[in-house]
Amino acid sequence: MKRAIVVTLLIGFLMSVGLTGYGYFKYTRMTGEWFEPLHSIQSDQWRQDEEPSPPNEQKKKEQRPRLDPFTIMILGVDTRGEKKARSDTIILAAVNPTSQQVKLLSIPRDTLVKIPGYGQDKFNHAMFYGGAPLVKQTIEDFLGIKVDRYATIDFEGFIKLVDSLDGVKVDVKRRMKYRDPSDGTEIDLHPGLQQLDGKQALDYARFRKSEIGSDASDFDRMDRQQEVMKQLADKATRFTTLFRVFKLMDILEEHVKTDLTSDEIGRLAILFKGFSSSEIETMELGGTSRRMPKHGYNLWFHVVSDEEKKRIQHLIQKTLEDDKLPETAGP
């Protein structure tokens, strides 16, 4: 009997070692595949405390790595098999690891901006003209805020990600029906609380034009996108098995591009352990709708005033400069 117990423990130990080694291999491969620095991004702000703690102090408390506050632009893109694409989702996030604050600013696709080298146009055209580097430069020029990091995910990856996390539960507020054979869009959702799979979640997040009733506004769309993002953030932090983690790694490896390194991601995971999406704050970029001639048409643009840009600058700067430690629930 004792021998059987020993053998069982030994097998369990070997399996855990094997899974740990395989997990490390998967993690390094994933971060190696998705790592794609933008030539225009240079930042020396990411650092780690280098002063070693005495051995007895290490036993008393877990050492926390250090990261300075940073901004990151998050882009949802749909290439549809093409090299060029317009960004369907444009989010600028301010992240403060010290105070564990995260603020999200969704930028309407129709926002009137000056795209370097192309003049005034809609914001989402920057991705088509010059990819993520040009989007970064456009954001910096438009808001006067330095963008430190970026991440992109394509539509196929979003669908797989949602499916791997068993979908998202949302309360659909209205009938959503729209079909566009030119790009394969086919949205058909009914009102009510329901569990959406990956394809349905993408439709829910993207819906704007409608075949039934009035079109949805860009702000309605951005609220839905943030709602889905928060749910995914919560689900992703509640891993149930290593095999689910491995599956997520496969998806991210194939469909995400970022200039976050494996070391930075590891430190963020430690610093934001136990973080809830309810703590994420959202900001709205106010403005007015205005028709303007462009590309041979009289198009609608979201026009943002200089005062509104300064307001956003202040909110983001306040988040980045806050050095107050988050409250803890206990010793």
Automatic annotation (TrEMBL):
InterPro entries (UniProt xref): LytR/CpsA/Psr_CW_biosynth, LytR_CpsA_psr
Domain spans labelled Cell envelope-related transcriptional attenuator: 86-236
Domain of life, source organism: Bacteria
Region described as Disordered: 43-64
Entry-linked Pfam families: LytR_cpsA_psr (PF03816)
Family: Belongs to the LytR/CpsA/Psr (LCP) family.
Protein name: Cell envelope-related transcriptional attenuator domain-containing protein
Species whose genome carries this gene: Ammoniphilus oxalaticus
